[in-house]
Design a protein that fits this description.
Low-confidence stretches: none
Distance between the termini: 24 Å
Helix content: under 10%
Number of helices: 1
Number of strands: 2
Mean pLDDT: 72
Structural class: little secondary structure
C-alpha cells in the first residue's frame, strides 16, 4: 500500500456515494461521506449534548 488509497464507500453495500452532494446545511453537519480512519470514541463526554459526537470525526 502506498500513501492514501481511494476508498469507495457503498451506501447499504449497494449504491455508490462518490457523486452525492449534501446541500442542506443542517444535514451536512451529521452526514459524513468521508471514510472514517478512526471510529470516534468519546467515553461518554458528550452524552448530554445532542449530536455532539458528530463533531468528533
Amino acid at each position: 500500500m502506498s500513501g492514501k488509497e481511494q476508498v469507495n464507500i457503498m451506501l447499504f453495500n449497494k449504491w455508490d456515494t462518490t457523486n452525492i452532494e449534501v446541500t442542506d446545511i443542517g444535514l451536512s453537519r451529521v452526514i459524513s461521506l468521508k471514510p472514517a480512519s478512526v471510529i470516534p470514541i468519546t467515553f461518554g463526554r458528550h452524552e448530554h449534548q445532542r449530536l455532539k459526537k458528530s463533531d468528533v470525526n
